[in-house]
From TrEMBL:
This is Patatin-like phospholipase family protein. InterPro entries: Acyl_Trfase/lysoPLipase, NTE, PNPLA_dom. Keywords: Hydrolase, Lipid degradation, Lipid metabolism. It comes from Cohnella soli. Gene3D superfamilies: Cytosolic phospholipase A2 catalytic domain. SUPFAM superfamilies: FabD/lysophospholipase-like (SSF52151). PROSITE patterns: PNPLA. Pfam families: Patatin.
Length: 250
């Protein structure tokens, strides 16, 4: 068993409050690796559950050790909001303290609760103006703009989330063309190479593809049956350096 450093030992001690030797050894192995946080789906109920998880991790001073955040659906809504608040705080202070993480989660809880109270779903399906807009515009795009208005406040592109010291954010969705998982991170978007994904699209750069956080979250949280898909246009170059525009339904 490799030795662990002081920071890893802190994580190990937080989780090893039992007397089971096998569990202690497993925890020790986990402490030697990077920590990832997965925020699952389930609508706003899932989002509020994840708020409790984030608050607990902040109190235990573990949030600073998380290097990857993977989200889907309700997890993407709250994960995206946490991420931009963490980004803002890092740009402000560079080095965050335990109290900073606790304060971020308190602010997150307040802002998310206010956002939910605006009843986005009612505005989307029952508001006469939005019903009229839905005739000419994808309802999924309206959902994305409501997310931006009531949760994210600013028009962030995914590439703007690239700030040193932030964990990697992975917002998960599905590409309708082949039924395989599709991800958006702050660095790129695409599909992981896998034998089970027919005709995998690989990864696409944001250099010529401007994707907004609001649209990535909408694609991740669009409930089948209520929404169709979020349509993106990707641009690639062939060997003759001609630009090609592709439609992606996510």
């Amino acid at each position: 068993m490799p030795l662990i450093n002081a920071e890893e030992k802190k994580v190990f001690n937080l989780y090893s409050n039992n007397e089971n030797a096998k569990e202690r050894e497993l925890t020790k192995k986990i402490a030697c690796k990077r920590i990832g946080l997965a925020l699952s789906g389930g609508g706003y109920r899932a989002s509020f559950f994840h708020l409790g998880v984030l608050a607990n991790l902040a109190e235990k001073n573990i949030l600073k050790d998380i290097s990857i955040i993977s989200t889907v659906s309700g997890g993407s809504i709250i994960g995206g909001l946490y991420f931009i608040k963490l980004r803002s705080k890092l740009l402000e202070k560079k080095q965050l303290t335990h109290k900073d993480y606790v304060d971020i989660i308190k602010e997150l809880e307040e802002d998310f609760t206010i956002g939910v109270s605006k009843k986005i779903r009612e505005k989307l399906f029952l508001h006469p103006v939005n019903e009229l807009r839905a005739v000419f515009q994808q309802r999924e795009k309206l959902l994305a703009r409501l997310y931006e208005k009531y949760f994210y406040k600013l028009k962030y592109t995914m590439s703007e989330l690239q700030v040193s010291g932030l964990p990697k954010l992975i917002i998960n969705a599905t590409l309708l063309e082949n039924g395989g998982p599709w991800y958006f991170s702050q660095y790129d978007m695409g599909q992981y190479e896998s034998e089970i994904i027919h005709d995998s699209k690989g990864t696409l750069s944001y250099d010529s593809n401007h994707i907004y956080l609001r649209d990535a979250v909408a694609a991740s949280s669009a409930v089948p049956g209520l929404f169709n898909y979020v349509k993106f246009f990707s641009h690639t170059s062939d060997k003759f350096l001609s630009r090609r525009r592709h439609s992606l339904r996510v």
